[in-house]
Design brief:
The structure is a homotetramer of 253-residue chains. The first copy, chain A, is of the alpha/beta class and 253 residues long. Chain A has 2 domains: 8-63, Roll (Vcp-like ATPase, Chain A, domain 2); 67-251, Vaccinia Virus protein VP39 (Rossmann fold, 3-Layer(aba) Sandwich), CATH 3.40.50. The first copy, chain A, contains 6 helices and 15 strands. In chain A, 53% of the residues are buried. Chains A and B meet through β6, α2, α3, β11 and α6 of A and β6, α2, α3, β11 and α6 of B. β14 of chain A pairs antiparallel with β14 of chain D, so a sheet runs across the interface.
């Protein structure tokens, strides 16, 4: 693959340092450790190594979805990849699925859902705060994932417009208040998955789901432990994200 | 949705008890708690509740992918949904992706990959043991997921046939021995993800990936904690799956 | 050290199989794998290996406190060593400490507290159920730890008799109802530590402690992960005790 | 209890802010939020609240061992209270125990061992680095715990001087090299407990212990999860210490 003018590329230094930039002839990119001339990359192969004026080596890499996802995550209230991945599985999201999401937030979960309902599916994503919707739209546009998303500026507690959807995914402060509406919107056998930081939200949501007759109601959380791997010195990292949120899931009976 | 003759349905009793059965007129299904007449369901709505001759209530639910996945998982050496979901994310699997997998095992990870490369993508899955391949094929057929899978009865260490693939996913005893081959098979920027139960496998795989020049090499594991939720009595479950395996990921530079 | 008639010894086969027995001349001990003559051990050194009639090797080991503690733990509702150890530290139990405990249960926590208040300290342990007290007394007698324990057959919610104690340790269903009484019983700077299985108990106890003016109120839990260690095959055990209970601690201001 | 001139007290603001100071007439204590006159506390009760010149409220609390332990922990390479507590239990440390420790480090584990071998027991603690020993000695003096400690400025790999000890506790880089020496030093049935940050150290130590014939060899680790407790908003803390070290224990056969 050859790098062309106008393309987004990833300038990769190491795990902790990399940038997404657009290649243009004559354009310089400034770092703390010197400057690179992006124009020189035009016509080169992806994977090409270049050096800044101060000698810092970098690689010109193709940008992919995960590069974008990492960057979204850093900007706003975050939902971690580990949770995004499992929520998507537990909601049984697949090509063609119609999924209601609330709230949109920064759009990171939206983007993953949108990826996996292709082709033919749709993510209907509700958000009350206009500025969040704007941020999310920008993120989705950057990722090329707007086609399978319908963004709604609306308080979901006033009603879900869709019917017979395959899944409802909630990442909001009061999910238990939406359980009835989610039940109405779902097809029989459809999945409700909710993500919340506190155990009290979990209690209320599980109770609401049970009393509405949801089947297979489960609550769980994922802890991700990262490792420092080195021959003869391997150990878990000392600092860990000890909590992100709990996941509740169930199925319309 | 109406239940039709010949369809697979899920007979759901509770979280721990449910069966996938085929509806046929005149067919009886026997449980420890009495018998149900499956033929009576023909023409009924999904969600219909029925009772066994001994009074056990059940629901006739549509069968979906997750129902099948749960059942695959119970049969052979297992890769848990939490790991399947995150491996798929870390491998950046998406519509159109071309993914090499080794080994096929029972096909549970294969089935999830195959779902998410649709349409247009392909999972090339290597397996040495014929009986495993046969089990996996049956599982994939049952799930309707054979179209995007190419099953290979071959020792992957003799070579990966594909080139410029987007991802290589390894769930095998000696992943470090395949790192070079994976590097050859991957396109620049493609992802290698490996799953292993022991920390020693992690050490060797990470070392092999680093010395081959893989970027952003990371090792991690997911711990899933399930909860017993009940108003005023909420607590984590006492017994937990404390370990499934470690996930190593990286990217061809 | 020489084994003498009438002594308790540990017959050790492996980590999972060992028995505490009393050595008497002429006494036989029967196992699934044959018989040993305990009398033959008299006058032998500790550490002596013997064989059953069917060839199973065993070691005659001195019995210590931990051997007894493991056995107590198996019999009743259990408080795990990891929790016993940290509760004792957080309660700042030391030689001479006067500690109120409720409930006595099987006496396993009592026995650890009693060990570490020696000499001169005292554990005042409250229990309402006579049969529990009887079991606990037997356990403490067996361990030789009755001297520093005063066992009280009493509902603690009717009052704590002691004043100016150094610590109050609670392992009971409704600890929040005892927070006021504990406050009265403690000296300024004394520690209250409570152990409970549910998060709701934690919420109520923490709230009660805060509103009573306890300082440095903290809530935490310990997860213990055990490992299967073998060269090149090291990994955490697959099955884990995922939850025992939460520990709340604070200090009278 | 009355505060007297010359006494150490704890000035407590909140969980995160407190100082150990010595009360002297005429002495001022300066904080970011104003000044307090320590002399005014003489003759007052412990628990007295005072205010800085800028209105910050504080409590004058008695200082206890845990206050000192917290402060030791912050200064050097740390062994956490959760590990100190369990190591002490697993080493079966009790009044009268004779314990070999290596290395002394900052003396925080030493101090806990020394507390619990009273009366009549002894901690023989080895340390090669003179400045560490000096720091540890100062810490132990401050805690009043020197009586049951013998500090040795010596490389333990040159030999353990003691015989028939009840426990050997290792917190050093190469514990496996000391397993033979520990075996010689221990009495039959005595306990060896080792604490190490990497899994490779665990592997080597477990192998060395097994080949030396230690019984009941186990490896484990403790994860401590702290909670933010508030009615209706209870959740685990987001940032967690994800790893401190592994504990290996066994018993001389």
């Amino acid at each position: 693959m050859t790098i062309e003018e106008g393309q987004e590329i990833l300038l990769y230094v190491n795990e902790k340092k990399s940038w997404i930039v657009i290649v243009e002839s004559g354009k310089k990119f400034h770092t703390h450790k010197g400057i690179v001339d992006l124009g020189e990359l035009i016509g080169k192969e992806y994977g090409t190594e270049l050096k800044t004026t101060l000698g810092l080596p970098m690689k010109a890499m193709p940008v992919d979805y995960l590069d974008h996802l990492e960057r979204v995550s850093r900007k706003t209230q975050i939902i971690y990849p580990k949770d995004i991945a499992l929520i998507t599985l537990l909601a049984n999201v697949r090509p063609g699925s119609r999924v209601v999401e609330c709230g949109t937030g920064s759009g990171s979960l939206t983007s993953y859902l949108a990826t996996h309902v292709q082709p033919g599916g749709m993510v209907y994503t509700y958000e009350m705060r206009e500025e969040f919707q704007r941020i999310a739209r920008k993120n989705l546009e950057r990722m090329g994932l707007t086609k399978n998303v319908e963004m709604k500026l609306k308080d979901i507690s006033e009603g879900i417009d869709e019917r017979e959807v395959d899944a409802v995914v909630l990442d909001m402060a009061t999910p238990w208040q939406v359980v009835d509406l989610a039940h109405n919107a779902l097809r029989t056998g459809g999945r409700l998955v909710s993500f919340s930081p506190t155990i009290n939200q979990v209690e209320k949501t599980v109770e609401a789901m049970r009393s509405k007759g949801f089947l297979a109601v489960k609550a769980l959380e994922l802890l991700m432990r990262t490792y420092k791997v080195k021959a003869n010195e391997t150990r878990p990292d000392m600092i860990m994200v000890g909590h992100t949120g709990y996941i509740v899931s169930g199925r319309k009976g």
